[in-house]
Amino acid sequence: MKAAIDIALNNVLTSSGGPFGAVIVKNGKVISMGRNQVVAEKDPTAFVRVGWTVLQF
């Protein structure tokens, strides 16, 4: 949860988007992170689910 909050806070502080961050955890390990990129991309469809960063599977 802290990682998602940190992503969301950074997104706001850098004026990259809204206060939305997401983290996917599998078996206690973070496997993916994403953030809202609507403002940065000037694209109303650039929600978190579009910009996932896959760390490992």
Automatic annotation (TrEMBL):
Domain CMP/dCMP-type deaminase: 1-46
Superkingdom in the source lineage: Bacteria
MF annotations from Gene Ontology: catalytic activity
Name this protein carries in UniProt: CMP/dCMP-type deaminase domain-containing protein
